[in-house]
Amino acid sequence: MLRRLSLAGLSLAVTLGLASLPAASAAASSSTSGPTARLDTAAGTAAGTAAGTAAAGLAAAAPDIDVSKVQAHLTEFSRIATANGGNRRSTGQGYRDSLAYVKGKLQAAGYTVTEQPCTSGCTTNAGPNLIAEWPGGDASKVYMFGAHLDSVSAGPGINDNGSGSAAILETALTLAANNPQMTNRVRFAWWTDEEQGLNGSDFYVRSLTSTQRSTIKAYYNFDMIASTNGGYFINHITSTAAQPMKAYWDSLNLQPEENTEGAGRSDDYPFEQYSIPTSGYAMGASARKTSAQAAKWGGTAGSAYDPCYHQSCDTLNNINATGLNRAADGIAHTLWAAAVSQQAPVDDFSVAASPASGTADQGTSVTTTVATATTNGSPQTVNLSASGAPSGVNISFSPASLTSGQSSTATFTVGSSVAPGAYPITLTGTGAVTRTATYTLTVRGTGTCQPGQLVGNGGFESGTSPWTGDTAAIGAHSGQSAHSGTRFAWLGGYGSTGSDSLSQTVTVPSGCAKATLTYWLHIDTAESGSTVYDRFTVKAGSTTLATLSNANAASGYVQRTLDLSPYVGRQVTLSFTSTEDASLQTSFVLDDVSVQTS
Asked: Rounded to two decimals, what is the model's pTM?
């Protein structure tokens, strides 16, 4: 959540008639139980049976969101932050790695996923927004569910806002796994640069045409939904958009309140500025819990809803699992109420691929069995198709049309020029309804080795392409010098907490006996002694190949060599990342990067 207070947001609350409601932000106990779990007060316990029965009725149409899976996403966000200077700020590699994790999960589940670079209004070098849309439903009636993915620089941001990001991710994956009949369209968003001023969501809404904005019937925002001393807050609680969210929490006897603390401070605000209805859950930030709220929800009166708000202690230990569970289940209930058909199709079927993945060399093929089953009503004709394959991959079905309950063989023929890599492919069955399954095709390279240098612009003399990441690090900067030529990449050197990263993807040809990564690195530092404070990490994909630090400082460039032979016949992303602590600079000056094959 953005720290600033917004007078515009307060004005909006007054306009909606909400300003007289109690001040907001809060949470619950640390239990991981489900929607009918023990309530947090004696009064809640007395009402538990009735509330549980009501919740069961409300949840009948929507699946339970497994909170342990939401927590698994949080664990991954924590790991990413730890590997990237302790945070996931929008301009750092921690944000980009978080985005790549979410994107990979969504693509494998069959979503149409788009990275939207923020080309105006965002902090320099901020990463992109991530937008994912589920196929099916009326495209003129879109319901959006969003959360900011970035953290502040001070910490990993596991509650703020890993909690919202993880909850909508698992809801999206649950929607894909259940694949229900859709009446309306569902779109998910993970926003960049929220902590610097709601910049990513603001750019998204500004970039839409008026017609595109008019198709969004409601936007739901989730920012800090697991605060350890929190409460149960709903944005614009009396609005039409909020009603399914309130109904679910009412069914648990949680007595939610208006989120006045969050008014104008998170990614729902840009949507409000364009008169798009909004709501969402929150459990509170730095505001303090009242005695009345503590009596109702438990916790400590007079203390902040989140005692680790915008601090380094916002870690996995700063999560209220009960509140997270109740929020995730409420998100699913709201999605199902807004966009999922409440009636099972008269005739329905399922589609599955077995095996769900396969590997083929260039110039060869691989097959899988596509099985269909009648799940409701009578068998029907199903036409099979595929999408998402890279250019050069041909997919055929034998037969291409069948009756539900029968199977087909899908053949993936890989051309000789297809780049090695893993490709999620959506297999679609179309009948009275549409059902999908995901197959992951891994392409390996073949052929004879062509010895040579694979890295583009390894000396940084030709602008920044094809490097990605913090490309402002590339240039002929004063204060450092190149190993050769005039340009180099200066990572770090700030003397404050921060991270820089540069990446490039290369394809290592098959048939090579050896592939070797070499680079020249000059490390200079204001640190003293052998204690490690600042680090330089080299990765191939997610594998760390080397870690250097301020303790390796030297007066000039040193050539470093790493073996890339395990990546022969594969596509791999090479990344160079610096991370600094809060004081005393260390500069990692990189030049003349190459990958030689032989």
From this structure: 0.64
- Write down the residue that tokens 């996403």 correspond to: 73
Contact of 148 with 222, CB cutoff 8 Å: no
What is the β-pairing status of strands 365-376 and 278-282? Answer: unpaired
**CA–CA gap between residue 253 and residue 47 (Å, rounded):** 7
Percent of the chain with pLDDT over 70: 89
> How far apart are alpha carbons 335 and 276 in whole angstroms?
17
Provide DSSP, 179-193: -PPBSEEEEEEEESS
- 383: pLDDT strictly greater than 80: yes
Residues in the chain: 598
Helix axes 321-339, 67-83, angle to 10 degrees: 110
Is 590:521 a contact under the CB 8 Å cutoff?
yes
Measured CA to CA in angstroms, residue 52 lies from 44, 255, 465 at distances of: 11, 14, 57
Give the span between the Cα atoms of 312 and 76, in whole angstroms: 17
Q: Any bridge partners for residue 502, and if so which? A: 469, 576
**Predicted confidence (pLDDT) per residue in 506-559, tens digit:** 888 877 888 999 999 999 999 999 999 999 999 998 889 999 999 999 999 999
The pLDDT value given to residue 297: 97
Rounded to 10 degrees, the C-alpha dihedral 16/20/21/24 comes to: 90
How far apart CA 97 and CA 82 sit, in angstroms, is: 11
- Provide the token pair at 593: 């990067």
Question: What does the pLDDT look like over 69-91, one tens digit per residue?
Answer: 999 999 999 999 998 999 999 99
Is residue 76 part of the annotated active site? The answer reads no
Q: In angstroms, what CA-CA distances link 310 with 244, 341, 546? A: 30, 40, 31
Cα 126 to the center of its chain, rounded Å: 15
Task: Give the rounded distance of the alpha carbon of 485 from its chain centre.
Answer: 39
Distance CA 513, CA 597 (A): 8
Residue pair 360/412 in contact (Cβ under 8 Å)? The answer is: yes
Q: Say how far apart CA 244 and CA 232 lie, in whole Å.
A: 14
Query: In the predicted model, what is the mean pLDDT of the chain?
Result: 87
* Residues 202/196, Cβ–Cβ less than 8 Å: no
| Residue owning tokens 């045409």 | 209
pLDDT of amino acid 24: 30
Q: What is the 3-state secondary structure (H, E, C) of 217-266?
A: EEEEEECCCCCCCCECEECCCCCCCCHHHHHHHHHCCCCCEECCCCCCCC
Structure-token pair, residue 516: 């070797």
Confidence of residue 447 (pLDDT cuts 50, 70, 90): low
Nearest to 50 by CA among 63, 39, 60, 41: 39
DSSP three-state, residue 432? coil
As a whole number of angstroms, the distance between CA 28 and CA 321 comes to 8
DSSP output for 129-169: EEEEEES-SEEEEEEEEEEE----TTS--IIIIIIHHHHHH
State the pLDDT confidence band at 134, using cuts at 50, 70 and 90. very high
Check 133, 194, 258, 272 and give the catalytic one.
194
pLDDT tens digits, 237-247: 999 999 999 99
